[in-house]
Amino acid sequence: MLLTTNQDRVNALLIPIFSILLGFIFGAVLMLFFGYNPILAYQAMLMGVFNSPYFMGEALRQATVLTFAGLGFAIAFKAGFFNIGVAGQLLAGWVAAIWVALSLPDLPRVLLLTLSIGAAVIAGAIWAGIAGALRAYFGTSEVIVTIMLNYTALHLTNYIIRNVLATGNTTERVGENASLRVEWLAQLTQNSRVNMGLFMAIIVVILYWVFMTQMTAGFEVRAVGLNPDASTYAGMSAKRNIILSMLISGGLAGMGGAIHGLGTFGNIFTQSGLPSVGFNGIAVALLGLGNPIGIFFSSILFGVLDVGAGFMPNRAGVPDEMADIVIAAIIFFVGANYIIRLLLNKIKLNKTVEEGGE
């Protein structure tokens, strides 16, 4: 039994590793097909980030928001449903944080940041909670509802920006008391936009792990996701846990929106489309297989890929869209992880046969 458990853990670790390798290999083959040099392209991508404190800081800044988005999706996924509305919930949190920060600029920094981030968490939680309540009480598809709520959030946010928070398409920047910027961290990374949100993300990763593995509420969320009928029979409330998981999911996404607004940009502006970071957060969660630590490191990988893609056209003559193809390939292999599992099982079987033959 212990051997099986250890083997399962090894397989769980190997799946994302193989997915990443296969994604890079697929991208390399595609580059070769179109006449590009994949070694030069990947070298430009990775060295462009790791050789520069500024771009390393930018990759970590991107990873920070992706961590919150990924954790938000992961907890809903653990409960058994697909929260495709992370982008809309992130947007709701973003506008709420900026709204509070601009409305109360003279408050002490600790209080103003607490209120702004708290407003973002509440806004994201409410936005996701709508889908959770409809799913719990009416059996409505959360995929359809969250997609609809995404576009509602997009257009409502643009309206609030133009008619409430500003007279144009961009709000004023928040004051220093509402900024997540840390001077020593900016200096360390040559004035990049990495901010206090990075440390908040690490703390939330730890809290998420504690909640899901050490607390009764987290166990019930996982149990409902695995088998809602058996959970109900055991005395757990499936409806309550569905709503709870969606509230936490949206709250985490909203917190990511606050980090995006107060840390990365310092304001909010009208959006032509939904923030891509919300959808990339879903990919991060899938690559991390729902494990908070895996999600954090997956976020760093995606941050490096996203920032490093900008070096590919100038240094290697490769279109930066190739980085998106690599990311898409990684996601595909994560989604089709049964292929990797089949390969691992076949290798294990062959090894067992060889040992038996000896």
How would you describe this structure to a colleague?
With 358 residues, the chain is mainly α. It has one domain (37-317): ABC transporter involved in vitamin B12 uptake, BtuC (Orthogonal Bundle). It has helices spanning 2-33, 38-50, 53-78, 86-103, 109-138, 142-165, 183-188, 197-214, 216-226, 228-233, 238-265, 276-287, 292-308, 312-316, 321-335, 337-357. It is globular. The mean pLDDT is 89.
The biggest sheet amounts to: none
Indicate how many domains the architecture comprises.
Answer: 1
Which residues sit in consecutive blocks of at least 5 with pLDDT less than 50?
none
CATH class: Mainly Alpha
Count, helices: 16
Number of strands: 0
What is the CA-based Rg, rounded? 22 Å
Strand content: under 5%
Order of helices and strands: HHHHHHHHHHHHHHHH
Q: Would you identify the CATH architecture?
A: Orthogonal Bundle
Give the CA-CA distance, first to last residue: 25 Å
Structural class of the helix and strand makeup? mainly alpha
Summarize the structure.
By secondary structure, the protein is an all-alpha fold. The protein has a single domain, classed as ABC transporter involved in vitamin B12 uptake, BtuC, CATH 1.10.3470.
